[in-house]
C-alpha cells in the first residue's frame, strides 16, 4: 500500500525558513517523480515543485523559484522541500504527491498534508 | 502558463442525476489532462488521467472526454459520496496548472 507522510509544518515568521519532509513507502521510490502541491485556506490547488526519480531536472512554480528547493533521498525514501524567505502568501497546506510515472505528471497518491503558517 | 478554466463554479444536483463538468485550456494540452476529487479536510484523489483513463479503483460512473482545449468530466449517476470539489490539471507544459475547481453540491 502506497503511503506518503508529510511532516515539518508549523508557524514561522515572515522571512523565516522551514523544511518539509515526506516519507514514502509501498512503492519503488526512485522510479517515480515526486511533487509538492499547496492549498491556501479556502482556495484551490497550486503546484509548487516536481523532482524526477533520479533527482534531476527539478521544476518550480514562479511564485517559489529562488526561495524553495526540492530534493529527495532515495536511501531514506524521503522527499524534502526547503522553504526560505517565507512570506504570508506561502501560508497553506502542503501536500506531497507521487506521479504516475517518472515523466507522467498525473498525481495518483497524495499525503494528508502539513500546514505551514507564515505570520508574525 | 496554461490557464485552465472550469465551469460551472457550482453545480447543484440531486443524487441519481448526471453531472457534467467542463475544463477549458487556454492553449492545447493534447490529452494531458487529469481530474481530481477533493472532499473537505481530505487530500485530492486522482479520478481520470490523460483525459479519459480512469485511475485505479475509480468507479465506472466517472468518465472523462476531450482533447486539445475542451474537456469534460461526467458522473453518470451521482452517489451521496460524490458531492465534493473537482479540479482539472494539465501536464502538457511546465508549470503544471490546476483549474479553479467546480463544487458539486446537493440540491
Integer average pLDDT of chain A: 97
Q: What is the C-alpha radius of gyration of chain A, as a whole number of Å?
A: 13 Å
Question: Main beta sheet of chain A, described?
Answer: 7 strands, mixed
Largest sheet of chain B: 7 strands, mixed
Strand content of chain A: over 45%
Mean pLDDT of chain B: 98
Cα radius of gyration of chain B in angstroms: 13 Å
Tell me the number of helical segments of chain B per DSSP (H or I, 4 or more residues long).
0
Query: What gap, in angstroms, lies between the N and C termini of chain B?
Result: 35 Å
The residue fraction in helices of chain B comes out at under 10%
| Largest interface chains and counts | A-B, 24 and 23 residues
Shape of chain A: globular
Roughly how much helix do the residues of chain A carry, as a percent range? under 10%
Intertermini distance of chain A: 40 Å
The sequence of SSEs of chain A as H and E is EEEEEEEEEEE
| pLDDT < 50 stretches of chain B | none
Strand element count of chain A: 11
What does this 3D model show about the protein?
Chain A is mainly beta and 120 residues long. Chain A is 0% helix and 50% strand. Chain A has no helices and eleven strands. The radius of gyration of chain A is 13 Å and the shape is globular. The termini of chain A are far apart. In chain A, 42% of the residues are buried. With 107 residues, chain B is mostly beta strands. Chain B is built from no helices and eleven strands. In chain B, strands 2, 4, 5, 6, 9, 10 and 11 form a seven-stranded mixed β-sheet that branches. A four-stranded antiparallel β-sheet of chain B has the order 1-3-8-7, with no helix packed on it. Chain B is globular and about 35 Å long. The interface between A and B is medium-sized, with 24 and 23 residues.
Give a quick rundown of the structure:
The complex is a heterodimer of chains A (120) and B (107). Chain A is mainly beta. Chain A has strands at 3-7, 10-12, 18-25, 34-39, 45-51, 59-60, 68-73, 78-83, 92-99, 107-110, 114-118.
Amino acid at each position: 500500500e502506497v503511503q506518503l507522510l508529510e511532516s515539518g509544518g508549523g508557524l514561522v515568521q515572515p522571512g523565516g525558513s522551514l523544511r518539509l519532509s515526506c516519507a514514502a513507502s509501498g512503492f519503488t521510490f526512485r522510479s517515480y517523480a515526486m511533487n509538492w502541491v499547496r492549498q491556501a485556506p479556502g482556495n484551490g490547488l497550486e503546484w509548487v515543485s516536481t523532482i524526477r526519480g533520479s533527482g534531476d531536472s527539478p521544476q518550480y512554480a514562479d511564485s517559489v523559484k529562488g526561495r524553495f528547493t526540492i530534493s529527495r533521498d532515495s536511501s531514506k525514501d524521503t522527499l524534502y522541500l526547503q522553504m526560505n524567505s517565507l512570506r504570508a502568501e506561502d501560508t497553506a497546506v502542503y501536500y506531497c504527491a507521487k506521479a504516475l510515472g517518472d515523466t507522467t505528471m498525473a498525481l495518483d497518491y497524495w499525503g494528508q498534508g502539513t500546514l505551514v503558517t507564515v505570520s508574525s | 502558463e496554461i490557464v485552465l478554466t472550469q465551469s460551472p463554479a457550482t453545480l447543484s444536483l440531486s443524487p441519481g442525476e448526471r453531472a457534467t463538468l467542463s475544463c477549458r485550456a487556454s492553449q492545447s494540452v493534447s490529452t494531458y489532462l487529469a481530474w481530481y476529487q477533493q472532499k473537505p479536510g481530505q487530500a485530492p484523489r486522482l479520478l481520470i488521467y490523460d483525459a479519459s483513463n480512469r485511475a485505479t479503483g475509480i468507479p465506472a460512473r466517472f468518465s472523462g472526454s476531450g482533447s486539445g482545449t475542451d474537456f469534460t468530466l461526467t458522473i453518470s449517476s451521482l452517489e451521496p459520496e460524490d458531492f465534493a470539489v473537482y479540479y482539472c490539471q494539465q501536464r502538457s507544459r511546465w508549470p503544471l496548472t490546476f483549474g479553479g475547481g467546480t463544487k458539486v453540491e446537493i440540491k
